[in-house]
């Protein structure tokens, strides 16, 4: 079983002896966003009312994985040196039948999934992620059950007509199963996040975080909708968590489950919007039909509106021709009759002031339909008492306090991972009782250019974090030119995100990139026919370079066992999976072409050269020692032999990294082009200094054991071919190691310019 994870005074993950460790892995798996029975991917057309009518009867069992296949997938992930899994699940999967009506069969399936993950040799760390995207499947994403929308008084069946949400499903022809629409009429690339600015999602987040303040009339069974929704959500999460603990306590005893994250990518809804009559100028994402908030309210009430329409151009998003939306007599709100039936079904008693068939923002006096006939915006600044800082430090903190208290009342040992809104710093919680020594801060990073254009642009990049956080007086200043600068800029962004998070939560709180990734369907899916993944490899290598520069822990978005070239991750045309069954044949083709050049992975006796800088305090030249076959890695990251076929951009995914540092991290860089790896650290001065190694995952995919050249400031090495781990027993103080595949001459950036390095021929056995 993997060893317990601790947190150092500097906010690093470490083992019980204070050696720095790293968490690396994937989000497994995005299929949790969609029901398995019936299989309702977002490319299932909405042909009849069943999509809504049967939403309480779905089952998510087999998502994330079919039980029988779990071992195979986990072993595959372990072959990358990965030790951690972020396990997303949705509120809908637990409580789709109605408030308080849990799907215990799904919960038990999750217990079995976890048990099987834990059963794979050396285990795996897992943390749970209550996932959502733009609130729910019924508002264009994933997460909450349908009844939450009914609870707010919405009629989701009319979201299409009123543009209250954009759903991929509506763009599928029921006859052909293919996508419909061209140009502006099509389901555009990465259009789904625009739902964050549409009526359904924006209202739901406003109610969830700020219902008491902004919608006091919306009470259900005597409770404001904010408390009602938060209460139900938190109860569902904790019911799952409690059931896991009850049915499989060994998962906690064996350090498999390490904690729980707060809700994925929380959003402020309307809170902070200063003028409901305009599209906020600070909004970075404008794509497709883009109504203002007021236009959304009108559309929701069935009033025709002409709204701006944006398209993606070379220079970002530009306004195209406006578009008139005619709801055709439909409203986004439940009629009196519909609501009565819903309320009876779920035993809801609403505040009598809460009229049916009415926009709740009209109900709260934000706008009205004037007697003379026209809609009038009365309070364009209704949500403007709060700004971003107020939202995060108040509304979000109130929510976080709720889940924190519930979680800690139940589990004092595991980590709680606080996730602020995407790409924003967390609230300032220093000296708050809800910030304890087992708190981790989650960050998500996506490169705006790569994400929105689905290509790797080597010439022009954008400081996405700087742009989103308004760090530039003019967005043009966020532009960076040239691949090297783009890579460095991404590295700087991640390190700034870490710095900003620590300045809010304290330096002792670890920062964990719980999501980071790239779309693989770049350049109109060219790679799926050419087998040329160079763009994806370059984009992913840039992320790897950025992450390892600060020794950041991360779980990539994502690993999807049912990925396909045709439909990607089966959700909203996304295709972020690092592995695809459809890529297996491609890998075989590549292998058969290159096999003659590859060394045999089975080789165990190898000759290598090592060298030692004069600057080292040791008088002994570095040498290889016999590795311990029963290498005790104290970690779940322990590779098991497997077939690597199906991995995409494998060169960039498979990376060396310090699994355990006997000291403090200073610098690391993997150079994919010349296959060299450099690690700098400050070795600890402890009685065991020379007996406790720094362990480096050194994948034979890049570093064939019989073709290694190693230079270091001090030490001895042992290479364990089974686990692909180099143990480096170094001295205290500033140390470096540089490992090159093949001959030393291929290392382009020597760490020492001392030409009189000693060298020795060594044997790895
Ligand atoms: C020059 C460019 C066009 C400038 C782009 C500026 C903005 C449009 C973008 C800057 C930052 C982007 C957002 C970053 C993160 C996001 C989160 C993401 O959700 C998660 O990602 C997975 C992959 O999409 C998804 O499957 C998971 O479930 C999610 O947890 C969705 C996109 C976005 C909101 C992204 C949108 C575009 C920017 C605002």
CA radius of gyration is 27 Å
Output the CATH class name of the largest domain. Answer: Alpha Beta
The tally of domains stands at 2
* Class of secondary structure makeup: alpha/beta
DSSP strand count: 32
Average pLDDT reading = 91
Shape: globular
Numbering strands along the chain, what is their spatial order in the largest sheet?
A: 4-5-6-9-16-17-20-21
How many H/I helical runs?
Answer: 20
Bound molecules: the ligand CC(C)CCC[C@@H](C)[C@H]1CC[C@H]2[C@@H]3CC=C4C[C@@H](O[C@@H]5O[C@H](CO)[C@@H](O)[C@H](O)[C@H]5O)CC[C@]4(C)[C@H]3CC[C@]12C
User: Mind telling me the CATH superfamily name of the largest domain?
Assistant: Glycosidases
End-to-end C-alpha gap: 26 Å
Keywords: Glycosidase, Hydrolase
GO molecular function: steryl-beta-glucosidase activity
Family: Belongs to the glycosyl hydrolase 5 (cellulase A) family.
Domain Glycoside hydrolase family 5 C-terminal: 655-738
How are the SSEs ordered, and which strands pair?
Blueprint: E1 6-7, E2 13-14, E3 20-21, E4 24-28, H1 50-53, H2 70-78, E5 84-90, H3 91-95, H4 104-119, E6 125-131, H5 146-151, H6 159-162, H7 199-214, E7 219-220, E8 223-224, H8 225-247, H9 250-253, E9 257-261, E10 288-290, H10 293-300, E11 305-313, E12 316-319, E13 323-325, H11 336-346, H12 360-363, E14 367-369, E15 375-377, H13 388-410, E16 415-418, E17 439-445, H14 448-453, E18 460-462, H15 464-468, E19 479-481, H16 483-505, E20 511-516, H17 527-530, H18 534-549, E21 553-559, H19 584-594, E22 606-612, E23 623-624, H20 650-653, E24 657-661, E25 663-671, E26 676-683, E27 694-697, E28 708-712, E29 716-720, E30 725-729, E31 733-741, E32 758-764
This protein binds the ligand CC(C)CCC[C@@H](C)[C@H]1CC[C@H]2[C@@H]3CC=C4C[C@@H](O[C@@H]5O[C@H](CO)[C@@H](O)[C@H](O)[C@H]5O)CC[C@]4(C)[C@H]3CC[C@]12C.
């Amino acid at each position: 079983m993997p060893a317990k994870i601790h947190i150092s005074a500097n906010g690093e993950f470490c083992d019980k002896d204070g050696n720095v460790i790293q968490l690396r892995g994937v989000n497994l798996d995005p299929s949790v966003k969609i029901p398995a029975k019936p299989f309702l991917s977002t490319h299932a057309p909405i042909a009849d009312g069943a999509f809504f009518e049967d939403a309480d009867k779905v089952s998510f069992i087999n998502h994330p994985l079919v039980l029988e296949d779990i071992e195979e997938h986990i072993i595959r992930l372990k072959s990358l040196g990965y030790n951690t899994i972020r396990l997303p699940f949705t509120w809908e999967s637990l409580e789709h039948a109605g408030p308080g009506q849990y799907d215990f069969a799904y919960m038990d399936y999750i217990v079995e999934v976890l048990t099987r993950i834990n059963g794979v040799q050396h285990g795996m760390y897992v943390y749970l992620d209550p996932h959502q995207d733009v609130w729910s499947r019924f508002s264009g994403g994933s997460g909450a059950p349908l009844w939450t929308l009914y609870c707010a008084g919405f009629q989701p069946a009319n979201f299409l007509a009123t543009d209250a949400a954009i759903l991929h499903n509506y763009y599928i022809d029921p006859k052909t199963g293919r996508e419909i629409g061209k140009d502006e009429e099509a389901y555009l690339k990465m259009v789904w996040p625009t739902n964050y600015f549409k009526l359904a999602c924006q209202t739901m987040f406003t109610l969830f975080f700020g219902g008491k303040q902004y919608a006091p009339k919306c009470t259900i069974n005597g409770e404001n909708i904010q408390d009602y929704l938060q209460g139900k959500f938190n109860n569902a999460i904790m019911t799952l968590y409690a059931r896991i603990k009850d049915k499989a306590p060994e998962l906690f005893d064996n350090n498999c489950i390490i904690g729980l994250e707060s809700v994925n990518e929380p959003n402020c809804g309307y809170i902070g919007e200063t003028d409901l009559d305009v599209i906020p100028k600070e909004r970075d994402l404008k794509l497709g039909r883009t109504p203002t908030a007021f236009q959304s309210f009108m559309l929701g009430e069935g009033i025709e509106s002409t709204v701006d329409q944006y398209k993606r151009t070379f220079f970002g998003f530009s306004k195209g021709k406006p578009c008139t939306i005619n709801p055709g007599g439909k409203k986004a709100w439940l009629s009196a009759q519909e609501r009565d039936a819903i309320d009876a079904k779920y035993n809801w008693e609403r505040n009598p002031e809460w009229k049916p068939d009415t926009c709740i923002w009209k109900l709260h006096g934000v706008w009205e339909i004037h007697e003379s006939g026209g809609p009038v915006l009365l309070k364009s600044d209704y949500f403007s008492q709060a700004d971003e800082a107020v939202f995060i430090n108040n509304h979000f903190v109130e929510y976080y306090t709720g889940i924190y208290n519930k979680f800690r009342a139940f589990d004092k040992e595991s980590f709680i991972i606080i996730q602020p809104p995407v790409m924003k710093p967390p609230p300032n919680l220093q000296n708050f009782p809800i910030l304890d020594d087992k708190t981790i801060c989650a960050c998500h990073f996506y490169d705006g250019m790569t994400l929105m254009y689905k290509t790797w642009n080597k010439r022009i990049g954008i400081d996405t974090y700087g742009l989103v956080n308004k760090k530039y007086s003019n967005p043009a200043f966020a532009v960076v030119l040239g691949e090297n600068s783009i890579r460095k800029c991404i590295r700087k962004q991640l390190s700034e995100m870490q710095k900003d998070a620590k300045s809010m939560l304290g330096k002792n709180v670890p920062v964990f990139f719980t999501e980071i990734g790239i779309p693989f369907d770049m350049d109109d899916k060219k790679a799926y026919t050419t087998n040329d993944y160079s763009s994806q490899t370059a984009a992913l290598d840039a992320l790897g370079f950025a992450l390892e520069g600060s020794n950041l822990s991360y779980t990539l978005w994502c690993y999807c066992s049912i990925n396909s070239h045709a439909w990607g991750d089966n959700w909203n045309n996304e295709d972020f999976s690092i592995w695809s069954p459809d890529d297996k044949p491609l890998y075989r083709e590549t292998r058969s072409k290159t096999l003659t050049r590859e060394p045999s992975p089975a080789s165990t006796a190898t000759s290598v050269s090592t060298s030692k800088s004069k600057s080292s305090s040791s008088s002994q030249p570095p040498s290889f020692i016999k590795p311990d076959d029963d290498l005790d890695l104290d970690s779940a990251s322990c590779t098991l032999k497997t077939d690597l076929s199906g991995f995409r951009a494998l060169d960039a995914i498979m990376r060396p990294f310090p699994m355990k540092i006997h000291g403090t991290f200073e610098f690391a860089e993997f150079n994919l082009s010349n296959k060299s790896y450099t690690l700098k650290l400050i070795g600890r001065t402890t009685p065991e200094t020379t007996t406790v190694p720094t362990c480096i995952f050194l994948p034979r995919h890049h570093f064939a054991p019989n073709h290694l050249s190693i230079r270091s400031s001090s030490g001895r090495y042992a290479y364990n071919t089974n686990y692909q781990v180099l143990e480096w027993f170094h001295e205290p103080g500033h140390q470096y190691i540089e490992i090159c595949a093949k001959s030393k001459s291929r290392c382009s950036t020597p760490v020492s310019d001392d030409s009189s390095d000693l060298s020795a021929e060594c044997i790895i056995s």
